[in-house]
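Good morning,

Both structures are done.
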Amino acid sequence: MNSLPSWIKKRISLGEGEETQKLLQSLSLHTVCESARCPNRGECFARKVATFLIMGSICTRRCRFCAVEKGIPQPLDFEEPRRVGEASRQLGLKHVVITSVTRDDLPDGGAYHFVATIREIRKVLPFSTIEVLTPDFQGREEDLQVVVKEQPEVFNHNVETVPRLYPVVRPLASYERSLTILKRVKEISPSIITKSGLMVGLGEGKEEVLEVLEDLRGVGCDVVTIGQYLRPSPRHLEVKEYVPPQVFTWYEDIAYSLGFRGVASGPLVRSSYLAEKFVGEQL
C-alpha cells in the first residue's frame, strides 16, 4: 500500500519544535519520537513534550515493525539519567515519559538504568508524574520488581499486536510474557496505573483485537492505546490495511465497555501521545 488515505496525512508543525530538538541535541539525548519516526513528533515538540529513549539508540531485537536501529549497542552511558532529568527540568514537564531500546545484552535488561533515570527526574521535578514504557526484561521477575518498587505513576508495556502475528511481527517476544508483566505490576503495586498499546493494520481481524482488549482487562490493565501501523521503510512489514477512523471509534467504545479507565484509539495514536492527559484523569 503506497498511497496514504486522507485521515493519515498530518502536517508537521515547526516553530517551537526546533527549540525542543536543539535542547535534546545539546544534551545528547535520544527520543522515541525521532528514532521511531512518530507522525506526531512535530506537534509534541512544539508543545515542548518528548518521550525519552534511554540506554542508547540501538536495539538488540529485530522486530519487523519498528524503525529503531537494530544491532550491537554501545555500553550504558551512566550520565544519561542526569541529562534526562535536566532536559525534563528545562522543558518544564509535568508528566515525564521514559522508554528504552531493548537491551538483552545487559544482565538486568537495563532495569537499574530506569531506576537511576526516575530518581534523577524526581530530584529536579519532585511534583511531576513519571511514566515508564519498558521492554519485557526477558520475563525476569527480579528486574521487573526493581522498576515497580521505584513507584512510577504509570507502568506501560505494549503487547503491540495480536498473538497470531507475534512470530512475524515480534519474533523474539512473547504475548503471554507481556500479559504476565502487566499482571505482576498490578499484583506488586495495585496503585500504579498500568497501560498497554497495540497497532492495527498488520493483517489482524477485528475479533482478534477484541480478544486482546479482553486479555488486557483480564490482567487489570487500566489504559490502552490503539493506533495505525505505518511502514517506516521498504525493509519493514507492509501495511495490510489502513483502518478507517470509525473502526477506531468502535474499538474505543468496546474498550470502555470492558472497563478500561482510559482509551486512546485513532489512526495516529501512539503509546505516549497525550500521555499526560490520561494520568491527569486517573490520579
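Second structure follows.
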Amino acid sequence: MTKSDVIDRVAEGTGLTKLETEAVINGFLKTIVDALAESDSIELRGFGTFRVKERAPRTGRNPKTGKIVEIDVQYVPHFKMSREVRKHIDEMIKTLNKE
C-alpha cells in the first residue's frame, strides 16, 4: 500500500476531499518526523510508540574492498506496535490463511 492508497482510503472514510486528506496526512507525518528529530517520543495509545534509538559506534567492513571502517554513532527511528494492534493483525492473518 502506498501513501496515495492511504489517502484514498482515508478520504473515502472521512468524506474529506483527497487534497484535504493529503494535507492532513502530510502534516501528521511531518509532525512525527520533526518530533523524532528533536528526540521526542510519540505515543499513540492503542496504536504504538515512535522513538529514536541510539546505535553505538562500531567497526564495519567495506564489502567491496574489505577495508575496515569505523562507523559513528547513529540515531535511528524505531516503532513499537501496541499489543492490541499486534493481536488484531495476528488474528486477521490467521483468519485469512484459514480461508
